[in-house]
Amino acid sequence: MLNHFLRSLIDWVFRRRSVGASLIKIGVPLYALVLASLTIGVRIPTKDGPFVFSWDTSGGAAALSWAVFIVATVIVLTGLLLVVRDVRRESREKVIVIEARGLRDAFVVDVRQGLVDGQIVSPGRALQQLNGVPDDIARRTDGTNRADVSFALGGLAPVPLLFLLGVIVDDEHRTLFMDWDRKAHIWRPLDEDDDGRRFDVTGLGAVAGGTTRAALCVSASYDVLDCDVRLVEPTAPIIRMDLQDRSTASHWSDAKQQQLAQQFLDTVMVLSRQGVTEIALFLAAPASLSLRLGTVYDRRNLPGVTVNQFEQADARKFPWAVRMPVAGLATPELVQR
User: Fold this and answer.
1) Axis crossing angle, helix 287-296 with helix 254-273, rounded to the nearest 10
2) pLDDT tens digits, the chain, 337 residues: what are they?
3) Residue ranges with strand state E in the chain
């Protein structure tokens, strides 16, 4: 799986063509035009006397030939300079690949220590694996210009851990999101077209004055059911964000995900303006979107947020959650029920 991820990542990150190489490809053929206008003479001695081959196509076009030669030289030299610039830039740029391993078998965050038969039974041990990520990132980026650092994020793990990884990375760096294609069994970039479908947001008007805690239910793949939420949040007002025509395969557009993340951020900001200081987040979303929503969540200016983990077989439905390191909380905290 890791090989698929890295191979797809390399193809995606380095897919762009070099402008310098393209200029060189344009300039070199122009030299052929110059050669075609030169006078060429060849004298070969033989026993019957010298054999002379002469080719002169220049005529009165010598000035034009020199002009083409100069243009070709400028183009090629410009291309070479751009190639050198790109090589120097690539030598200092860093792409940090983070894969969160959880539900399936670079810089790998392995949270499988708490797994039994695909289900996390020891989320505390899994959380410990993520606690060291900020220090690891700082070590890897030490002395590197922020503009030269980018991230590639992917992984299959419980939603609270994916959201937490997004919070840790945040959106201050260039970030490439990838997801696992369950049909093709490969890692894929989010390269499909935006279908225009967005969240339908409801319930904001039900937040009464003085309310400090709210339950935000985001259904981007499966449905988050109010009856399940009420098992752990019996009194908090419920705000719903339901993706139109949602499915487990409605997330493969990067442009669409950017808009969904903006809707999520706008909704959280509305709740903040209404006086909400703590959000219980119930998120059903693909891994890439869970990561992205974490990256856009402002650590300083938004309410505290606790992301709940859904377990269908558990009578409590949401047996544990992770309180994110935002709104003054220094480190993530595990909430077990």
Assistant:
1) 50
2) 445 555 555 455 445 556 777 777 777 777 666 665 555 555 667 766 666 555 554 555 556 566 767 777 888 788 778 777 776 665 555 555 555 554 433 456 655 555 444 456 678 877 887 788 888 878 877 777 767 778 788 888 899 999 999 999 887 777 889 998 988 888 889 999 999 999 999 999 989 999 999 999 999 999 999 999 999 999 999 999 999 999 989 999 999 999 999 999 999 999 999 999 999 999 999 999 999 999 999 999 999 999 999 999 999 999 999 999 999 999 999 999 8
3) 39-44, 51-56, 94-101, 107-110, 115-116, 119-120, 149-156, 174-181, 186-189, 199-202, 213-219, 238-243, 278-284, 304-309, 320-323, 333-336
Domains of the chain by residue range: 2-91, 93-336
Kindly state the tokens that stand for 271: 């709740």
The residue with tokens 């344009």 is: 26
